[in-house]
Every structure is written in structure tokens, then in C-alpha cells.
Amino acid sequence: MTEEAERKAARVVVADDQTVVREGIVMLLGLLPGIEVVGAAGDGEEAVRLVAEVAPDVVLMDLRMPRCDGVEATRRIRAEYPGTQVVVLTTYADDESLFPALAAGARGYLTKDAGGEEIVRAVHSVLSGDAGLSPGIQRRLLERLTETEARPAAPPEAPDGLTVRETEVLLLIAEGLSNQEIGRRLHVSTATVKTHINNLFAKTGLKDRAQAVRYAYGKGLVRPPAG
Description:
The protein has 227 residues and is an alpha/beta fold. The protein is built from eleven helices and six strands. It is 53% helix and 13% strand. Strands 2-1-3-4-5-6 form a six-stranded parallel β-sheet, with helices on both faces. The protein starts with a helix and ends in a 9-residue tail after the last helix.
């Protein structure tokens, strides 16, 4: 007996507001090994109700639906019925669709050009504790991770009404940089750096760069070197 035949059929609910699409997905899944369709919903509200009634293993969830969209339905299902996993099956692969759905608790994300084998694989992946993501979605997540790691850390929260730029200048003063070096680091003119320094001195009551360094340490904007 093959591994596919031995594997227990996953009980699935399909949620999609377009009748033709929903019925097409149900028909497709009915032809695939390892899947048993136990219900179909026309919106997120109905999907949550069906999960309460039939306790499926997985919901194949569309995102843009009336009454209750797929993200909110996913959030409710994962909070109220943690035994049911959610795999998003949608037309949309943009960040504004992808990341809220994953944050709501979806363990899988496929676009509607996915083939039957890919859907089966995603369903059983999430039931095994893995993520059920299409290759394109995996690439987007890796790209976002790389973008996040490459993005410079935001400066600490500024005291005394300092702007973000004034705080950056203060931190560079604390590093011992001259006005010219600060200008090169921030890609601004020396005159602009002087303006920022005058503004931050006026807001904080500082008189010179030595006081600015002590202020930065005193406010916790800069930490003394370890050891």
C-alpha cells in the first residue's frame, strides 16, 4: 500500500463567496486522494459556523468575502477552534493580503492557479505541523525577511520633542563625529547639520557637544560600552 493510500483523508471545508468557484473547488477536491469535503461556505461567517458544526481538519479559505472576510474568519477559527487549520486559497498574492492572513493564524497560503496535487500537499503539510505555502509565497516571505534584516534599526524614542533626524544627529555627536562627518553619514549639507544641532540644543537646553554626549547617555539613547 502506498503512503498516499495509507494517509488518513483530511476533512475539509471550502469557503468562497463565488458559487461557481466554490463548486469547482469542491468538485476538484472530490476527485483527489486524501481529501474529504465535509462542507462549503459562501462567506467567513458561514465558514466559522460550519467549523463549529462539523469540526473539519482544514478550511480552504478565500480572503475577500462579504459579511466576514477570510482574515477575520481565520482569526476566529484559530482562536475558537484550534483543532482546525486554515489554508488560504485566493486570487491575491500581494503583501496586504498575505501577511494579515498569516498573522491571523493561517498555516498555508495558495493562489487559485494551484493544481490539485499542490492543494493536497498543502492540506497535509499543515496537518503535519508544517507550512503549506506555494513556491511563490515562500519566495515573497524570504524577500520580506531579507528586507527586514537589511532595514536599519529605528532610532530610540526621542525625548524632549526631538524629531527623528535631530535624534540621529544627537547619536552621531555622541559617537564623536564632526559636523562634516555627520553630514556625510546622513547625506545632508553641513549647514543642515548645524540647523539640526541648533534645534536640538534649543529643545534640550544644552550648551555644547560635551553636554550633548552626557545627555544622550543620561536619556538611555546610548549605552556605555560593556566591560
